[in-house]
Amino acid sequence: MRPTPTNRAAAAVAPARVPCRMILVRCIALAALGAGGGLALPLPAAQPAAAPQLTDAWQALSIGSYEDAGAQFERTGAGREARLGAAIALINRPPVTPSSLAEAQSRFTALAQGDDEAAHAARYFLGRMQQLHPIAPDLPAAAREYETLVATGADDTWCRLALVKLAILRLTLLPGAGNPAARFAAVEPLLAQTRDAVTRRDLHLVIAEARMSRRVYDPVTLGHLQAALAATDAADALRPDILVQTGRLAHLAGDRATARASYAAFLRDYPKDRRCYTVNAALTHVDGSFPP
């Protein structure tokens, strides 16, 4: 599987409370169960400890200081954002044990009962825990968590992340999901669940790559690649890769005009890319057999 979405940290600001949506980038990268740690520097004994701010706790979490971050979240109070941060710190703080995972799962489950952004984040992390559990992964349970989140229709960051993860599970990993045609059919409707251009791009790419891995070189697969390409611009790091993929697939599918246009666009827009030599060679073969 290839989850294509991108990763990007911010600095702490004033003592104002930071809403979940302002720190999503920091905790998205912590979705997998990992390791790391860090200790806070103690204040001088004569100086009273200042009350920790959520901004500081998220900052500690974003740099991998899970123990420090967890302690700061616990001291900020019982708010839902603080409880979410503490649970995320817990699944990353070494040593990761069955008891720490069970405690984190219990915390996420309690938070997921609401209908705010913290609830959606908690539901997403429940899915990730089931999918990536180091002892007993449960892919059907992970898919159910993602489906529950998508069914809210919120189309927020967490729902969009869940859509791509759900597509990957349905296409490649879920047992008993049927033959390739059934798997493809189970994913196509997910495109209608979001208006976000980047998420739709990622879904088109996941579907196209799953079809190509099954050697389904047809106009439907090509259409998914072209839709993904249409959602990019020159600054998108994925655009040159998609252009090359589109050219190769179009050639294999017999659409030589699209192959020629894709290769030519790559050579025009990325003249210093190391693949230019091979792409130029492929372009010269467009009117002949597909090169070995």
List the helices and strands and how they pair.
Blueprint: H1 24-28, H2 54-62, H3 66-75, H4 80-92, H5 98-111, H6 117-132, H7 139-150, H8 157-173, H9 180-187, H10 197-213, H11 219-230, H12 239-253, H13 256-269, H14 276-284
Could you characterize the architecture of this molecule?
There is one protein chain. The chain is an all-alpha fold and 292 residues long. The protein has a domain at 1-38 and 53-182. It has helices at residues 24-28, 54-62, 66-75, 80-92, 98-111, 117-132, 139-150, 157-173, 180-187, 197-213, 219-230, 239-253, 256-269, 276-284. Helix 10 packs antiparallel against helix 11. The radius of gyration is 23 Å and the shape is elongated. It starts with 23 loop residues before the first helix and ends in an 8-residue tail after the last helix. Mean pLDDT is 84; it is low at 1-49.
